[in-house]
Specification:
Layout lengths: L1 H58 L7 H9 L20 E4 L2 E3 L2 H10 L7 E5 L5 H9 L2 E6 L2 H13 L5 E5 L12 E6 L8 H5 L1 E12 L3 E9 L2 E10 L7 H8 L1
Parallel strand pairs: 3-4, 3-6, 4-5, 6-7
Antiparallel strand pairs: 1-2, 7-8, 8-9
Helix pairs in contact: 1-2, 1-3, 2-4
Length: about 260
């Protein structure tokens, strides 16, 4: 009997020990999850503050006034559009590499080109050069429809997946050479080009709606933002901001050599 009693006591002690270990493990797990949630919330707040500072110091102070553009720049999480190793530099006042010899444009230049395009909630936009997808996201925050062409299939796929995951449903991306635009979807109220040819492609002007604007960097070593506005009588063209974009490749490069 004493032996049976000792066995029962031993089993009870083991059961209590197991119960205590389960309780402690569950408590620590809950605390760990809470710490992760807290860290995630703090990081999200930090990114929001970074975007607000970017807009106020880099963009608004340089003369960007369109509230829709400013709101879009505050809303889109730029750090998700750069390599993870560069996420902490995403809100700096300069372009950053995104792979494949391509870059994400300086925040101010993105804001400038977007404001220059004069977008509304009814605007239909074509973008040539999806790249990271960041400019496309800014456009999709404001415009009704955005169509974007990327010549590098890898970037087109990567950007499409990211933008889909972020919930953009008014944005269509395809892989291809954007030199001749997207005639099946024309006309466009605005066309923004994020790579520099040495001349303005005629097809892009043809695909503008009357009153629409083409905003494009033009040049080789020295480039300027060129704004082409389509009118009832033809077009008007002005050059504004000195910039430095990656060269437009594909047919644009061939025609550059032929010129």
């Amino acid at each position: 009997m004493n032996s049976l009693h000792q066995i029962k006591c031993g089993l009870l002690r083991w059961l209590w020990l197991i119960a205590i270990l389960v309780f402690v493990s569950a408590t620590l797990g809950t605390l760990g999850e809470g710490s992760l949630i807290y860290a995630g919330e703090q990081n999200a707040i930090h990114r929001i503050r970074q975007r607000e500072q970017m807009v106020e110091k880099q963009i608004r102070l340089r003369g960007i006034k369109d509230e829709n553009v400013l709101a879009a720049m505050k809303s889109v999480p730029r750090h998700l559009f750069v390599p993870h190793s560069l996420a902490n530099r995403a809100y700096e006042d300069n372009p950053l590499p995104i792979g494949f010899d391509q870059t994400i444009s300086q925040p101010y230049v993105v804001a400038y080109m977007t404001e220059t395009a004069t977008l509304t909630r009814e605007t239909k936009v074509l973008e040539i050069g999806t790249g990271s997808g960041y400019q496309a996201a800014i456009l999709a925050e404001i415009a009704s429809e955005v169509f974007s062409i990327e010549i590098l299939p890898e970037l087109a796929t990567r950007s499409r997946n990211l933008l889909n995951n972020l919930g953009y449903r008014n944005l269509t991306i395809k892989s291809g050479d954007g030199y001749r635009g997207w005639p099946e979807e024309a006309p466009f109220d605005a066309i923004i080009v994020t790579a520099a040819p040495d001349h303005v492609p005629t097809a892009l002007i043809e695909q503008l709606a009357v009153g629409g604007k083409l905003v494009i960097p033009v040049g080789r070593l020295q480039q300027e933002i060129t704004i082409v506005t389509k009118t009832d009588d033809g077009t008007s063209t002005v050059q504004t901001l000195p910039v430095r974009f990656v060269p437009m490749t594909g047919e644009a490069k061939v025609r550059e050599i032929d010129r």
